[in-house]
TrEMBL record:
Coiled-coil stretches noted in the UniProt entry, renumbered to this chain: none
Source organism phylogeny: Bacteria, Bacillati, Cyanobacteriota, Cyanophyceae, Pseudanabaenales
Pfam families for this protein: Aldose_epim
Protein name as it appears in the record: Aldose epimerase
InterPro entries associated with the record: Aldose_1/G6P_1-epimerase, Gal_mutarotase_sf_dom, GH-type_carb-bd
Organism: Limnothrix redekei LRLZ20PSL1
Length: 291
């Protein structure tokens, strides 16, 4: 039995449930349309910093934040487009900080909810493009699907990058076996490149690795201690993966991005959407028990 219900909390929470699978998803539209919780049979899959969540002046660290219209940061937070537009955008853009509207729900073959974010005078002042984002979250069994529709409602091409920033719970990072569709990495902290052999040094205070060439549309992380595998599948729009974690925090982030940091300035892997057109991205997360 699928269910979508609204919980009356400080910010309304929409809870999606698949009763047969004992899976739960919680979404908070007013806090950037963020997924704050995904649990299966009582196991919490996502990390959430509750103190940051309760402070509306801080970006949320945890859950699955939405990245738009940039992924990562810009030098001095500034961009200059070849078409002449210029402006200031803070890290990961503004979609994760703005209130979204609930515009639909469906219980036919999954528990699903659709959220919408429209351009406003505030966004137009820093990113002068008329857009609409429609994100649909679908929960079915051990699977979470995120369907993202980006609409250009303006009369000129719209440049953007899009991404997700999921924070996954982990108790023992040394027990992770990581299978990524990549052969090389760029270390953001050290500003260096190297060959990727599947191992990561979790003794570093911070790991911030970008994988710029993706040769298949899926990745997996197996927690050998928990005897389970998390799979991430994505469409061809995502041409960059990022792995980020902090040594003293019980999370890791495996992030699909359509383009790298500073794409709005460099044009690297930057998406351009024609007037009146829609660009759709799709990400699917699934948990498999190995025991």
């Amino acid at each position: 039995m699928f269910q979508v219900e609204e919980l009356a909390e400080r910010w309304p929470v929409f809870r999606l449930t698949d009763g047969a699978a004992q899976s739960v998803l919680e979404v908070v539209p007013d806090r950037g349309g963020i997924i704050t919780r995904w649990a299966i049979q009582g196991q919490e899959l996502l990390y959430l910093d509750r103190d940051r969540y309760q402070d509306p002046n801080l970006s949320i660290r945890g859950g699955i934040p939405i990245l738009f219209p940039i992924c990562g940061n810009l030098p001095d937070n500034r961009y200059q487009l070849p078409t002449g537009e210029a402006g200031i955008l803070k890290q990961h853009g503004f979609a994760r900080d703005l209130p979204w509207m609930v515009t639909g729900s469906d219980l036919r073959d999954a528990a699903s909810i659709t959220l919408t974010l429209d351009a406003t005078p505030t966004t137009l002042a820093i990113y002068p493009f008329q857009f609409r984002l429609d994100f649909t979250y679908r929960l079915q069994g051990n699977q979470l699907e995120i369907i993202q529709n980006h609409h250009n409602l303006g009369d000129r091409p719209m440049p953007f990058s899009s991404g997700l920033h999921p924070y996954f719970n982990v108790t023992n990072k040394s027990a992770l076996a990581i299978d990524l569709p990549v052969t090389e990495y760029f270390d953001q902290k050290r500003q260096s490149t190297g060959a990727f052999d599947g191992t990561l040094d979790f003794e570093q205070d911070e790991l911030d690795l970008r994988f710029p060439v993706v040769d298949r549309l899926s990745a997996t992380v197996t927690d050998c201690q928990q005897q389970q595998t998390l799979s991430l599948k994505f469409d061809a729009s995502y041409r960059t993966l990022v792995f980020w974690t902090l040594k003293d925090k019980p999370f890791y982030c495996l992030e699909p991005w359509t383009g790298p940091r500073n794409a709005l300035n460099t044009g690297e892997q930057l998406l351009w959407l024609d007037p009146g057109a829609t660009h759709t991205n799709q990400v699917r997360l699934q948990l498999q028990h190995n025991g």
